[in-house]
Amino acid sequence: ITIHEKTFRLLLAKTPEEKTKGLGERDSLPQDTGMLFLSDHPEYPQFWMKGMRFPLDIIFIRDNTIVTIHHNLPNPTPENQTYQIVTSTELSDKVFEINAGLSQKYNFKVGDTVQISL
């Protein structure tokens, strides 16, 4: 996946089990890698940080255009097991998760074009 000439390798969540688990229970994610969730139709998918061990940016995409970005979502800690649910402000057909801070580092914005090669 490429946004602003920054290319990431993809982990693809295909099965319902993979989509439910997502990046949960991993200790880290390489800086050049993200997880892509595909939907059969545009929807308002909901994501949470259950089982996450590191913070994320979650990018919602529709028709290869960024429609919503949630920055720096914290992972739960032993002191705080609250799970904030995040969703898109518009219908989306793809969701892309990357390490927290990268969307700001690379200046990703709503309206940016996303190129995906599977």
Strand content: 35-45%
Determine the fraction of residues in helical runs and give it as a percent range: under 10%
Number of helices: 2
Strand order, biggest sheet? 3-4-9-6-7
The chain-level mean pLDDT equals: 94
Envelope shape: globular
Q: How large is the radius of gyration?
A: 13 Å
Which structural class do you get from the secondary structure elements? mainly beta
Order of helices and strands: EEEHEEEEEEH
Unreliable segments (pLDDT under 50, ≥5 consecutive)?
none
Q: Let me know the number of strands.
A: 9
Q: Main sheet, how many strands, which sense, barrel?
A: 5 strands, mixed
CA(first)-CA(last) distance: 8 Å
Textual characterization of the structure:
The chain is mainly β and 118 residues long. The protein is 8% helix and 41% strand. The strands form 3 sheets. It has a 5-stranded mixed beta sheet. The protein has a two-stranded antiparallel sheet with strand order 1-2. It has a two-stranded antiparallel ribbon with strand order 5-8. Strand 3, helix 1 (16-21) and strand 4 form a beta-alpha-beta unit. The chain starts with a strand and ends in a 13-residue tail after the last helix.
